[in-house]
Amino acid sequence: MATRQTHMLGRILIAPSVLLLFIWMIVPLVMTIYFSVLHYDLLNPGVHDFIGFENYYYFLTDPAFLASLKNTLVLVGSVLIITVVLGTLVALLMDQPVIGRNFVRLMVIAPFFVMPTVSALVWKNLLMHPVSGFFAWIATSLGFRPIDWFAQAPLFSIILIVAWQWLPFATLILLTALQSLDEEQKEAAEMDGAHAFSTFFYITLPHLARPITVVILIETIFLLSVFAEIFVTTGGGPGLQTTNIAFLIYSQALIQYDVGGASAGGLVAVVIANIVAIILVRLVGKNLET
Amino acid sequence: MGSIQLQDVRKSFGNIDVIPGASLKIEDGEFVVFVGPSGCGKSTLLRLIAGLEDVTGGHILIDGVDVVDTPPAKRGLSMVFQSYALYPHMSVRGNIAFGLKMARMPKAEIDRKVNEAAGVLNLTSYLERKPRELSGGQRQRVAIGRAIVREPKAFLFDEPLSNLDAALRVNMRLEIARLQKELGTTAVYVTHDQVEAMTMADRIVVLHAGRIEQFGSPLELYERPANLFVAGFIGSPRMNFVEGPDAERLGARTIGVRPEHITVSRSGDGWKGMVSVAEHLGSDTFLYVEVPGIGTLTVRTPGELGLREGDTAVLTPDPARIHRFDANGQAIAS
């Protein structure tokens, strides 16, 4: 009796927050769905004709869509590979006893605290600028012609910036995992005659499987919606070379003023994100099972 | 073959001398137990032999070859760890085979050896399981399997039974002792449990503060402890120590009598005291008797005696079983 009342009370008490969260999520979603079937153009205010799935048709058949889908996948995939591989190596290094280890750790983690817009600006103007950038200075002092990063390798530059931002996250998670590796296991492997490489592949890497999965899943969520870095540096260009889905939807809504098309794109993005999530969980999710 | 000889082995961590200098010789096929209170350096000594720690000085000879500069895997020893240190993502088969795989042994031979080891340890039906699906005793056996499959010159055990419950511990104790006798491989076993030491060992090394206090067979340690520390450490309940006129009369600074070598009566000659606590174990009774001028003496008597708390008891030590110690705590030969 008492437990039933407590349960009841509990439900009543959490109802407001659940309701609020539900509304918070459902209202924008429903509005987006609603807009996506309208001809809603900011240049023709007042005209909101129902046009069915035409917005979807135009969005999906737009050559920009396939290009940006490809860019999104390349961006996410490359950043994942770079951060996981480098993150593992950096974490292995930081697990060694070195002088000033705490300071080194703080420095390595620092990029994660820099806002995306700021770090993109720093990379654009201080590092990658073809005339006054640090890389250009290195190139010219060595007698090479400086690279105009955002013109010659725009997507690669974006990947570099985003990977730099996410490397600390991967390193941090993998480092804590490394520190939880049982010392006696490493010693047992040593007694069994395993060298550094075999210890890494047979003992350390399997131990890291789960944290690597976590890193991949979390990073994917955020990397699918990279926007600030692109907006600040290349603005999606040259052409469509650095436009990803998020940026395409932005340009649909606020450069072409087509709210209906952007809403349709947003819903397509939701579907794509879900497809990616399902594939990922299929691929690496089994590592999360105990 | 597998004899291990330590020659003045020293180990310090920074300024702290954990092992100030240990020398001993373990014969081939012997089961030697390192025993001592926690922090006495017994595990460190084992890890020095294994090669997991580097010696600060001295030599370690395995079959007469100095192995101080040899990496652990090349010393031909295998070790069973306290936490078992099984590789959690590998099956039992993978765990046992790992050392052989690292030695690049042909697959067929690995399989044959693993199956053989699994047969000896009753693990055959668990070979494809992961360590987390096994019970404590089974994990322990996998750890032992991993050790025996490499056919080492000697086994090193680092408190392997301390994570098991009491009943299983007795079983595994027997099993390890039996296995070692069957294989005839030298074994060095570290424990803080003197019952394990007494029951399993051919010879026991008693360590105290990094020093070897005595090295001898279990009965030797029990009957002829070399000094006060060994006398107090071996035997349960602890030996009673008496100082003062009673000791001086026998020409010693301290005399020691084991609880089982004291007879109790209600009257007569001897130490007169009052029973403060009586512990009834069924087969034995432990009496704690307050004797004025001496302190609490422990007495072990077979069966029930009818003595209760508060009763007066007279204690008579068996004169042939009195151990005498000089001012330095060393035993005086009788």
From TrEMBL, chain A:
Segments forming domain ABC transmembrane type-1: 69-280
Keywords: Cell membrane, Membrane, Transmembrane, Transmembrane helix, Transport
Membrane topology annotation: Multi-pass membrane protein
UniProt key word Ribonucleoprotein: no
InterPro entries noted in UniProt: MetI-like, MetI-like_sf
Sections of the chain in a coiled coil: none
Pfam families per record: BPD_transp_1 (PF00528)
GO CC aspect terms: plasma membrane
SUPFAM superfamilies attached to this UniProt entry: MetI-like
PROSITE patterns membership: ABC_TM1
Spans traversing the lipid bilayer: 12-35, 73-94, 106-123, 155-178, 212-232, 264-284
GO biological process, one term: transmembrane transport
Subcellular location: Cell membrane
The organism's place on the tree of life at top rank: Bacteria
Family under the similarity heading: Belongs to the binding-protein-dependent transport system permease family.
Name this polypeptide is given: Sorbitol/mannitol transport system permease protein
From TrEMBL, chain B:
Superkingdom to which the source organism belongs: Bacteria
InterPro entries: AAA+_ATPase (IPR003593), ABC_transporter-like_ATP-bd (IPR003439), ABC_transporter-like_CS (IPR017871), ABC_transpr_MalK-like (IPR015855), ABC_transpr_MalK/UgpC-like (IPR047641), Mo/tungstate-bd_C_term_dom (IPR008995), NA-bd_OB-fold (IPR012340), P-loop_NTPase (IPR027417)
Every ABC transporter domain range: 4-234
Keyword annotations from UniProtKB, A to Z: ATP-binding, Nucleotide-binding, Transport
GO molecular function, one term: ATP hydrolysis activity
Membrane topology: Peripheral membrane protein
Name by which UniProt lists this protein: Sorbitol ABC transporter ATP-binding protein /mannitol ABC transporter ATP-binding protein
Organism of provenance: Faunimonas pinastri
